[in-house]
Structure formats: C-alpha cells, structure tokens
C-alpha cells in the first residue's frame, strides 16, 4: 500500500483527508471509546463552523491586529550571497505575537472552543511555544488553561514555563515515560477523558485523531497562502523550493499546503536527526520509522520490533517527538514532499549563521530548516528561490545554546 | 460457542455475574504472571483479562501506566504474553483469557500473525483499547477467522448510533466503562451504571461487563446485581505495585480480595 502510483498533477489536494479522516493509510481515529463522543462533538462543531463567515472574520481580525499578520517574507540577501546559490526568503513566523507560528492555530481552536461552550482549555507542549500560544489566547478570552509539559522539557525551556505562568495558565509537569512531548500528550488525553464535559483539548500540531490533523492544517495554512502571494509580489513567480522543519509538522504543513498543487515547487521537510540518522538518538520517523498507531492516528512512528514507542532525541524540544502528522506521511508516500534529516550540530550551525549574518536569532526547531537551506542553496542557481519557514524565534533557546557551549549565563 | 460465551452463559443460568480480574502481563516480573493467573482462578474468578504492556497507555491512569513500565523494564513483549497464556493453558483449559492492550504492538506483529498466534496460545478474546469499530475491519476479520472474540468498550458518553455500531462489531462480551475518566478513578455510581447497562441491553444480547472504579467487595456486589460481569483491575495492580519483590504476598492479598468479592457477589443472589 506504500508508494501508490499517483499522478501528482491530478490529485485534489484539498480533498484530503477523506470523510473518516484518512490520508491514504494514515490518520483516522484510533481513540478509546471514552474519547469518541468528545471527538465526534469536536468534529461536528468544526464542520459546522469552519466556513462560518462570522467566525472566519473574527479569526482574520485577530490574526491581523493581535498576531500581526501577514508576517513578512524577508529576503536574506547577505546570507544568500554568502552561500553562493539560490536566493533564500524567510517566512517570518518568528515575528508573530508570542514568537512562533503556533498562535495561528490556537486562535482558531480556542475561538471554536468558546463557540462550543467549553470553559476549560487544556494543551500539551514540547518547546513551550504551543503552551504559551494557548495560554495567551486563554488569558485574552478569560478561559481556564492547563498545560501539560514533560519535566525534561520544563527544565530545558524554563523561560516559556514562566511565561505560561505569568499568563495565568497552570503548568503540570509530566514525569512518566520519556518526560517529553509524547508523554505530555498522553497526560492531556487522560485529562480530556476525565473532564470531557467542560474541557476542550487544544492540540498544537497536525497529529492526533481526526479532525485535529485537518483542523490544525486549516488554521496554519495561512502561512503558505501569504508566502505564495508575497513570493510572487517580490520575485514575480513561485519559489523553486520550500523548506520547513517537521516535528509533528504544523508549521511545515502550514507552509506546504497551498503549494501542493504547484508541482514544480519542490518541498522539503526537515526532521531532527539528533546525533545522526544512523544512531538510535534522533527524532526522525519519516526518515527512519515505520507506520504505526499512536495518539489517535496512524503515522510514521519510531517504535521497536515489539511495537513499543522508543525514546527520541533532539536538541530542540519542539521536534523531540516519535510520530509525525498523517498528511506528511501521505505526502512522503505519494512522493509530493521529500523528508530529510539535520543533526543537532548542523542545526546549531544554522542557528549561529542566521544570528551572525542576518541578525535574527532563530528557534532551534527552525534552525533545522535553516541548516538544510545551507546545504540546498549552494546546489541551486542564484536566480532560483527557496522559501524557508522561520517558524519561531530563539529567545527561549538561549539557555540551551549557552549550556551546549559550556557558557554560564 | 466460544469459551467466553459458554462461561458467561453458564453463569447466567445460575443467576450469577462473572468476576473478571485484570493484571498487566509481566508485572512486576514475568515469572509472577502465570502463577498469579492460577491463584486468581483458585480464588474464584471466571475469566482473566491480561494486559499487554504498552509504552503509552493513554486511556489508563497512573496505576496501570506504572504496571506497564515495570513490565517493559523486563521487555515483556506481545510474544511473551502469548507464551504466558500458552503456559497457563497447560493446566487450565477452562478459564477464558482476554488480552487487553493498545493497537501498536498488534500492528508491529501483523494482524494475521497475531490472530493465528493468539488462537494457538489459547487466547479467547482481544480488547484493543484504541481501536474503535470504525477502524477495526482488518483486525476483526483476522480475529474472526481464528475464533478469537473481539471485545469492545462502551462508555457513559457513547451515544445510540455508536452503541449500535459497537454491539454489531463486538463478540464475547461488551465492556462498559463505568465512569468518565481513566482506569483507577473512583467515582462509581451504581444507579447510573444500571441505567446505562439497561440501555445497552436494548441493542444486544451480548453479556455486558462493567469495569473502572470497582475496588472493594461491596461495590463488586452492587455492580454484579446490574451487570453480567464485574471487572476489577487497578486495585489488584496496586497490590503488585506495593509489594514489588514479594510474589507470595501479592498472591495472598489479591486472592483474599477476589475471594471476598466472589463471596459478596454470590451472597446477593
């Protein structure tokens, strides 16, 4: 069933997923019966409201005046020249309010929650960006907010933990399993099952049981719609390639989705290769995993031969996840997108390059995409363009970077 | 008729409700599981739910999650669990054994290979927590071809259209989750359980077992009155957790509780 023969020019990319939430063999609703009613309620509400002109107008207004959209598409001229190949354009999601793309999604979901009459919002977070984005909207709308976060991540993303608390959210440490993002997701699902009457689970990535992968994609697709328009305005044509980092895959789907039908545009998703794709210490399910089922959907997953999910490693908390959104899995199988790995060290090089050459401190997650652009650009001509998703800013990571380099702040 | 169906049918004719304990296979070490299964049968249980350890048991509370972690420390795999059932069957061909777990270990083994191995090992049923009937087609046909029952969960929030779908897909018995939450929670309301079980029975002749939140003989007896089977898990697993290196104490304590439950359930006849 993998790699089906598909003519990419005839695919209706907006027709995915199917009615049951499947992207090919991926996606679906693999949830305990205790959650199915809540999932169906969410799905019904989303289907009813996703084209509601009033809700869409509210979201657009918030994106413009609260988040600061459209985010700029910035020509990194000096860096492009230095690399000596394609022109690199950065989609500046780091300039959004709260410093990452995550808020595009939380605005949509939390407004939906409010329409559904839910008074309590829960979320999981890895790097803390989704937690901060959720806490931010909850503060603004006056809703209770509980964020689950692995205790390892709490340690390495301390500034974001404090931001969430300042915003009035309760941050609950998760000490089970690998104490990272996947365990935070498990715990959030348990909370949801228990408090299903008044609680809305705001998932931060394009994974989870249907409708999450499509709903989060729809809210993030604004990235690619803007980037396409801006690229045409600035260069007179579509880009030759897109690059984005992929953990769960929300900023990547956000950038990619509007370009899927433009089959001349090459698409690259960059996974965290950690200490190397040939070691056991990475977080690259698309490069190295196999299809499996976790967190409500079928996806490429890092698991052992017994089907137990294995611990992952990445220098960036936001990419440290053993699975990946089902739409990416399908895009890989049909050959529309390429998925590659970038190691911790390469990502650090990307981090420093952008900081020193362009004066922009990127998030460690986004640094993976930048590192791949550093490889890819020199292979291309100077009249070609690459759009890179700069999904978040790196302020939250300075402690990690300092520690890695043996510097005490 | 399957071993599950005939066991439950027998009990029904005696006017009794079944007592079904749950333990996680390989907890706290793989050597305990088979002796524990036998001791529970001796204490009066009618069938056994054996948990297949999984790294991410999302629908379970902390008690069963820790049990999975203990079992996985010994690398207890689905293959190992099937071997345990095979060993149990050498001296017990009467007590139904139902595996309860998450889908990914089955995906890793392959549905067909799993169903064949399950039958060979003497497994009677499979409850896959994160597999609703909508996604179950392929596994169901593999189980059916090998005469392994597919047990499904129903919850307090399950609405009519889903009850219909689930009772059609299920066989052996149905597992009604008595409260909103994860395993090990404690807010069970017997009157509420009774009305839900009655409602489910309007759609099916399958026996309905009730689990989640049954911790003592009194509750077991009350639930027995309104259902076909009483499923007891976290309280037993807690006993394993509290006595990690003492199999004898675990066997004594679990046997005492199960015998008390059995007695209380039968007294209510």
UniProtKB/TrEMBL annotation, chain A:
Record-linked PANTHER family: TRYPTOPHAN SYNTHASE, TRYPTOPHAN SYNTHASE-RELATED
Name of the featured protein: Tryptophan synthase beta chain
InterPro entries named in the record: Trp_synth_b_CS, Trp_synth_beta, Trp_synth_beta/beta-like, TrpB-like_PALP, TrpB-like_PALP_sf
Enzyme class, broadest EC rank: lyase
Pathway membership, UniProt: Amino-acid biosynthesis; L-tryptophan biosynthesis; L-tryptophan from chorismate: step 5/5
Classification lineage: Bacteria, Pseudomonadati, Pseudomonadota, Gammaproteobacteria, Thiotrichales
Biological role stated in the UniProt entry: The beta subunit is responsible for the synthesis of L-tryptophan from indole and L-serine.
Residues recorded with modification N6-(pyridoxal phosphate)lysine: 102
From TrEMBL, chain B:
Keywords carried by this UniProt record: Amino-acid biosynthesis, Aromatic amino acid biosynthesis, Lyase, Tryptophan biosynthesis
EC number: 4.2.1.20
Family matches, as InterPro entries: Aldolase_TIM, RibuloseP-bd_barrel, Trp_synthase_alpha_AS, Trp_synthase_suA
Pathway in which the depicted protein is active: Amino-acid biosynthesis; L-tryptophan biosynthesis; L-tryptophan from chorismate: step 5/5
Active site residues according to the UniProt entry: 49 (proton acceptor), 60 (proton acceptor)
CDD domains: Tryptophan_synthase_alpha (cd04724)
Claim: Amino-acid biosynthesis is one of the keywords in the record: yes
GO cellular component, one term: cytosol
Enzymatic reactions: (1S,2R)-1-C-(indol-3-yl)glycerol 3-phosphate + L-serine = D-glyceraldehyde 3-phosphate + L-tryptophan + H2O
Function as written in the Swiss-Prot or TrEMBL entry: The alpha subunit is responsible for the aldol cleavage of indoleglycerol phosphate to indole and glyceraldehyde 3-phosphate.
Protein's name in the database: Tryptophan synthase alpha chain
Organism the protein comes from: Leucothrix pacifica
Lineage: Bacteria, Pseudomonadati, Pseudomonadota, Gammaproteobacteria, Thiotrichales
Gene: trpA
């Amino acid at each position: 069933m993998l790699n089906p023969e598909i003519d990419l020019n005839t695919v209706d990319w907006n027709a995915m997923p199917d009615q049951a939430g499947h992207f090919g063999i991926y996606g679906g609703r693999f949830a305990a019966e205790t959650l199915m009613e809540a999932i169906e309620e969410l799905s019904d509400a989303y289907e009813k409201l996703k084209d509601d002109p009033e809700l869409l107008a509210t979201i657009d207004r918030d994106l413009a005046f609260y988040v600061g959209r459209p985010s700029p598409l910035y020509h990194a001229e000096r860096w492009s020249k230095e690399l000596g190949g394609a022109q690199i354009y950065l989609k500046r999601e780091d300039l959004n309010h709260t410093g990452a793309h995550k808020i595009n999604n939380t605005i949509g979901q939390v407004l939906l929650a409010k329409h559904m009459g839910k008074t309590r919002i829960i979320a999981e977070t890895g790097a803390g960006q989704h937690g901060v984005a959720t806490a931010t909207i909850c503060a603004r709308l006056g809703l209770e907010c509980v964020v689950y976060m692995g205790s390892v991540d709490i340690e390495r993303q301390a500034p974001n933990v404090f931001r969430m608390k300042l915003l009035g959210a309760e941050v609950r440490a998760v000490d089970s399993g690998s104490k990272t993002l996947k365990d935070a997701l498990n715990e959030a699902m348990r909370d949801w099952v228990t408090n299903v009457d008044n609680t809305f689970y705001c998932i931060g990535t394009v994974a989870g049981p249907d409708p999450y992968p499509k709903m989060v994609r729809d809210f993030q697709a604004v990235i690619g719609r803007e980037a396409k328009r801006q690229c045409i305005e600035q260069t007179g044509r579509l880009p030759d390639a897109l690059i984005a980092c992929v953990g769960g895959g929300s900023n990547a789907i956000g950038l990619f989705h509007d370009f899927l039908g433009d089959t001349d545009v090459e698409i690259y998703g960059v996974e965290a290769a950690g200490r190397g794709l040939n070691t056991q210490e990475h977080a690259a399910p698309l490069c190295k995993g196999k299809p499996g089922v976790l967190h409500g959907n079928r996806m490429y997953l890092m698991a052992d031969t017994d089907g137990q999910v294995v611990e992952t490693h990445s220098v960036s908390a936001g990419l440290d996840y053993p699975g990946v959104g089902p739409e990416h899995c399908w895009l890989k199988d049909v050959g529309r997108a390429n998925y590659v790995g970038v190691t911790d060290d390469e990502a650090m090089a990307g981090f420093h390059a952008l900081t020193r050459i362009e004066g922009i401190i990127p998030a460690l997650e986004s640094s993976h995409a930048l590192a791949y652009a550093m490889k890819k650009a020199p292979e291309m001509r100077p009249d070609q363009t690459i759009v890179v998703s700069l999904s978040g800013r790196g302020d939250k990571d300075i402690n990690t970077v300092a520690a890695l380099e043996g510097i005490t702040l | 008729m399957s071993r599950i169906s005939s066991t439950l049918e027998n009990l029904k004719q005696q006017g009794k409700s079944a007592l079904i304990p749950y333990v996680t296979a390989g907890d706290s070490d793989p050597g305990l599981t088979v002796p524990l299964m036998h001791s529970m049968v001796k204490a009066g249980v009618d069938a056994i739910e054996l948990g297949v350890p999984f790294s991410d048991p999302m629908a379970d509370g902390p008690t069963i999650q820790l049990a999975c972690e203990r079992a996985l420390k010994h690398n207890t795999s689905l293959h190992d669990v099937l071997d345990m059932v095979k060993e149990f069957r050498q001296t017990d061909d009467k007590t139904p054994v139902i595996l309860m777990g998450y889908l990914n270990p089955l995906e890793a083994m392959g549905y067909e290979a799993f169903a064949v191995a399950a039958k060979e090992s003497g497994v009677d049923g499979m409850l896959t927590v994160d597999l609703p009937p909508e996604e179950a087609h392929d596994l169901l046909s593999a189980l059916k071809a090998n005469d392994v029952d597919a047990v499904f969960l129903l919850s307090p929030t399950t609405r009519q259209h889903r009850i219909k779908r689930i009772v059609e897909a299920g066989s052996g018995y149905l597992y009604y989750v008595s409260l909103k939450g994860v395993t090990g929670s404690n807010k069970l309301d017997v009157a509420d359980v009774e009305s839900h079980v009655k409602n489910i029975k309007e759609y099916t002749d399958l026996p309905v077992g009730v689990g989640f939140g049954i911790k003592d003989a009194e509750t077991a007896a009350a639930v027995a009155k309104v259902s076909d089977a009483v499923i007891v898990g976290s309280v037993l697993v807690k006993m394993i957790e509290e006595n990690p290196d003492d199999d004898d104490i675990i066997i004594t304590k679990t046997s005492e509780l199960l015998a008390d439950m059995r007695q209380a359930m039968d007294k209510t006849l």
